[in-house]
Amino acid sequence: MTHVLQASMPLHTLSKRLSLSSTLTLIHTHRWRPLSCQMSAESSPLTHSITLPIQLAEPVQIVAAPGISESEFRTAINSSLFKQWLRNLQSETGILADNAMSLKRVLIQGVDMFGERIGFLKFKADIFDKETGKKVPGIVFARGPAVAILILLESESDGETYAVLTEQVRVPIGRLILELPAGMLDDDKGDFVGTAAQEVEEETGIHLNLEDMVDLTAFLDPSTGCRAFPSPGGCDEEISLFLYRGHVDKETIMQLQGKETGLRDHGELIKVRVIPYKNLWRMTADSKVLMAITLYEMAKREGLLPQ
User: From CA 66, how far away is CA 49, in angstroms rounded?
Assistant: First the structure.
């Protein structure tokens, strides 16, 4: 079923990270060393030891790189990002599950705080293949789960379907890029649907009805975790992709085009761009867009979408 969308102006506070509850049991074998947060070249590095239930005979050493304060070190180890990564290692499909690999050491290299919580965490894991004794690539940029939504608006006047995108400054790639409205999660409840709708309202000004959103990643096989991983070779980010279809008049389409939105006090300088859906696959290299198109088209072909 499709629904009519209305443009609305109120903006809310941006949700940026899901703090996953910790269920992993860690056996702490050493207490924190009473070191100063200011470390000189002669100072011993901050270290901590944990024992994972899956490899009880092999304690894991956690070490802080030079420049990481004791406070940052504690925060990193206790963060949901780090604990979730440890859970993933020990899950049914995890690297350590079949006892063929062993985690020896983790070097905490960078901690970026968003206020009082961790936004990004950078670390290096020493994981060895037991048969060959070789270390596998283990550089990790942890940022946690995120959501993105493909909004398709059918114009009531000409029947053309349009996709709603955002244009933002992206410093890591040094350019502007057209993207799906998206954001990171930061609540313990894991409200993927609510966060997706909130992101859309903040980035486009469009208010969505939660019950009309379709989780495209839910169509994936359960063995995948029903999430998309855009860069699993270096980043833990997992994305839930949603679909929203609606009818609007052509005037609403024109009003959305070029609209300036975003949370300015968070440094967000966002413009809304509306593109004919038939051209969307060629208009941006954003992986979220391309993944959403693929999932949408395949789900439509298989008759999985609600009418």
Answer: 18
